[in-house]
Write a structure and sequence with these properties.
With 143 residues, the protein is α+β, with helices and mostly antiparallel strands. It is 25% helix and 36% strand. The protein is globular and about 45 Å long.
Length: 143
């Protein structure tokens, strides 16, 4: 289930990116979600069954974002991709996924995150690289 989301948008001139605006939303409190997302949304308090200090959560999130920003500044893409692979290992290596694109709902099997940060999916006998959008995992092994 989805506990957070990130939306980013860049402004560029030609091939040079001048700025990136990032919006981050984290569901912290136990709440009732709208019916159209209730089956796939959750919150930290719902998953941990304990109260969460929103200010402390924001501080930790901003500290992590600062670390990632420094890695980007150093162009340390490998460290970022390695972290995605480590923290996302339950959703890689054979997990069934679905996503929406210009062809409608698509299904495949998540294999890896490539060196550029794209999610690599086997779909209909082809390898697809997903770089934007919402991907839903059908079932995860939490080993």
């Amino acid at each position: 289930r989805k506990i957070a989301g990130i939306l980013s948008e860049s402004a560029s001139v030609g091939s040079r990116i001048d700025a990136v605006v990032i919006g981050i939303g984290v569901n912290i409190r136990k709440t009732a979600f709208p019916p159209d997302i209730a089956d796939r949304a959750t919150a930290i308090e719902m998953e941990t069954d304990r109260p969460v200090d929103a200010a402390a959560c924001a501080v930790e999130l901003l500290a992590a974002l600062a670390d990632i920003t420094q890695q980007f500044g150093r162009r340390d893409r490998a460290a970022i991709v390695d972290a995605w692979r480590q923290y996302g290992r339950a959703g890689l290596g054979g997990a069934a996924v679905r996503w929406h694109d210009e062809h409608g709902v698509r299904r495949g099997v998540a294999r890896d995150v490539d060196d550029a940060g794209a999610l690599v999916v086997d779909a209909d006998g082809r390898v697809e690289r997903l770089v934007a959008g919402e991907v839903q995992w059908d079932r995860l092994n939490r080993d």
